[in-house]
Amino acid sequence: MPFRSKAQRRKFAELLVEGKISDETYEEWNRSTGRKELPERVKPKKQVRPKAKRASKAKARTRR
User: How many domains in the chain?
Assistant: First the structure.
């Protein structure tokens, strides 16, 4: 199964260093990926829009 992104390749390398996956597993994935140019991430991160600031009720009222 090939890597789908650079981030996934980095994660597998981290798992390899920690000893959570075998060297054979990493090499198998690496060989199946080949020399493809991978995207940084498969899905772009969602952009968080800041919430609109609401005026407080005291400021919104007009004086009579």
Answer: 1
pLDDT in tens, 3-22: 899 999 999 999 999 999 99
User: Residue 34 is inside which H or E element, if any?
Assistant: none
| Residue 20, domain member (yes or no) | yes
In this structure, are residues 5 and 43 in contact, taking their beta carbons and an 8 Å threshold? no
Residue 62 falls inside a structural domain: no
- Cα distance between residue 6 and residue 4, in whole Å: 7
Quick check: is 57 in a domain? Answer: no
Q: Are 63 and 29 in contact (CB under 8 A)?
A: no
